[in-house]
Prior knowledge:
By secondary structure, the protein is α+β, with helices and mostly antiparallel strands. 30% of the residues lie in helices and 12% in strands. The chain has helices at 55-66, 82-94, 104-112, and strands at residues 15-17, 20-25, 29-33. β1 (15-17) and β2 form a beta hairpin.
Amino acid sequence: EYLEPFGLGLFHTGVQVGGREYTFAGGGGVFDMTPQEAPGAKFRQSIDMGTFEGGESKLASIIDELKPQFKPDSYNILTKNCNHFSDALVRRLLAKPIPGYLNRLAMLGGCCGP
């Protein structure tokens, strides 16, 4: 809340396709759930990124291709978080990135951290 005016914040993201939201978390890896119901996350907004026209089998194939990159034990708040997964998925589905501000704080921390 306090960092939002500066274009910074800690955001949970997921990608909604149809009636499911796809996301990534430590211990859980890549999973789907009812949209806007991520455990421990506060829903703030939806961002319309476009419409995926590839169908369920193409979506499942893309998710399966991303799972090895986003294993449950590979989660890192700075270098591999739900925002990194959302960006990778949206790039595969729609050929564009998620808005940069969603992961800006992690990127700054990754540059300045250990």
